[in-house]
Amino acid sequence: MRLAFLGTPDFAAASLAAIVEAGHDVVAVYSQPPAPRGRGQALRPSPVQAYAESRGLSVRTPASMRDPDAIAAFAALDLDVAVVVAYGQILPAEVLSAPRLGAFNLHGSLLPRWRGAAPIQRALMAGDPVTGVQVMRMTEGLDEGAVLATATVRIGPLDTAGTLHDRLARAGADLLVATLPAIERGEAIEIPQAQDGVTYAKKIRPKEARLDWRRPAAEVDLKIRGLSPFPGAWFTAVGDKGPIRIKALLSRVDDGAGAPGELLDDALLVACGEGAVRLLRVQREGRAAQDAGDFLRGFPLSAGARLS
């Protein structure tokens, strides 16, 4: 089909690559404008833009798809379909209705659960045992369109937002490629979303990342894994030069009891308000991520120390 792809992060780049490899005619790729990245904060293209340019695809990065000129340019593409994956802008009705067959979105949850910006992180933080990806028809409402196809993914006890993201990205790319021919033939069955069970995956705010050891261990573990690798749940520990911020990137619930934040052994077993959490992977401020054993060789913390 003659299509436009609208997406920005790595999650979307996987889908674009699959669509290109499937042989569709991608006449335009839309992505968010280049943004400051890395230590030097130089302007760099998004993962989708970088991939598209590597394949010689036409890339457009309008600041707003609500701009009349951007709408007119999109309509002039004479598309069969638009595919949207984590684009990062709300699309107006004029854009959604411009393609002959409509606009379709790949979403990283099992709708109507976790509509919105951060479905992968929120599913993990809530302790959901299963999540998935779905292809839906886009409407003006937030992730409210009818669902055409679904792939489920089980969440494991050591999954992080990063590992789950990668599995969902692959599953989503496969699902899109499998669904587009049915859309082209008019054979895709569109199932309206249920009215019950609607939840919203609000954007992750920096203030959410601070760990509270007074919470139950199960909740602390889910928060650590749900915010890993970014932005990373964090705590402070006292070293030779005073308090230092440390990110917790991987953990598991373990046996133990003590004052919240107390180290119960010499291997990063931390007491919580109920139970304990074993920290498996951490990252000191300004350093690379390390497994617990490697971290402790450079920053020794012994039983009885307190984390805050």
Walk me through the structure:
By secondary structure, this protein is of the alpha/beta class. It contains eight helices and 16 strands. A seven-stranded mixed sheet has the order 5-2-1-6-7-9-10. Strands 12, 13, 14, 15 and 16 form a five-stranded antiparallel sheet that branches. Helix 5 packs antiparallel against helix 7. The radius of gyration is 22 Å and the shape is elongated. The model has no long low-confidence stretch (mean pLDDT 96).
Please outline the helices and strands.
Layout: E1 2-7, H1 10-21, E2 25-30, E3 35-37, E4 42-44, H2 47-54, E5 59-60, H3 68-75, E6 81-85, H4 93-96, E7 103-107, E8 115-116, H5 119-125, E9 130-137, E10 147-154, H6 161-185, E11 200-201, H7 217-226, E12 233-239, E13 242-254, E14 269-271, E15 276-284, E16 290-291, H8 292-298
Parallel strand pairs: 1-2, 1-6, 2-5, 6-7, 8-11
Antiparallel strand pairs: 3-4, 7-9, 9-10, 12-13, 13-15, 14-15, 15-16
Helix pairs in contact: 1-2, 1-6, 5-7
Note the main attributes of this structure:
308 residues, alpha/beta, seven-stranded mixed β-sheet, five-stranded antiparallel β-sheet, 16 strands, 26% helix, elongated
